[in-house]
Amino acid sequence: MNILDKSLLTSAIRCLFVLPLLIFSQHAVSQRFTVMTEDFAPFGYVENGELRGLSVEIVREVFAIVEHPNDIELLPWARAFKETQRKKRRIIFSMSRTKEREPLFKWVGPLVEDRVRFFRHKDSNVDIQSLDDARAVNSILVTRGFPETDFLQAQGFNNLYMTNSPIQSFAMLAMERGELVPIGEFAYQSMILKSGINPDTIEKVDIKLFNIELYIAFSKDTSNEEIARWQAALDQVKASGKYGEIIRRYSDLGY
């Protein structure tokens, strides 16, 4: 084999390796999503006309790495959930990754981990030392479709009172129309404030139900290569130290 033949062979071999990378790179750059989240502080909320939040800031750091436009729509959860199921090139966050939801989406994360605990009225006589003790209270206020609700139902609790939102749950708790509300520690203070009640009237019960991990969920048409690219970007954010800065900032705000 002469030098020219060797050169052509070398070029051909390089193309075999480089071309797929170029195709992937072009696909990755051109891939654009409709990105949606809900108004659920501290993960996503509007302040002074600007979309902010713990998860929002982390996702924006990921945007910068994958070169995605910095566009996020704030929508009701049910609508965003259905769109991500039924339409192509959709993203929704922050979503808990449950067994029921697992086959419905593709996943990147976790974005953040939260500890779910019970909260009670400060003047309540309810004294629980374990999860089983909570079975004896008159009513636990839970929101339909939330992971906390699914968890307690799976544990066989039959004293659950369904509400339409965590805000409604805390409003009822403030009026002592229920004994306990389960919610993540990051989210509880915001829910109390939105309920219009004095946060000093609510206290945390020192019993952890479970840790909840929140993810970015993608519509099923998303390629595995794209999922891997976003996962690598999120991992890079976590390794860079920016992730810890964001978590600490919201912890300092009282979340």
Automatic annotation (TrEMBL):
<protein>
    <submittedName>
        <fullName>Bacterial extracellular solute-binding proteins, family 3</fullName>
    </submittedName>
</protein>
<dbReference type="InterPro" id="IPR001638">
    <property type="entry name" value="Solute-binding_3/MltF_N"/>
</dbReference>
<feature type="domain" description="Solute-binding protein family 3/N-terminal">
    <location>
        <begin position="36"/>
        <end position="250"/>
    </location>
</feature>
<dbReference type="Pfam" id="PF00497">
    <property type="entry name" value="SBP_bac_3"/>
</dbReference>
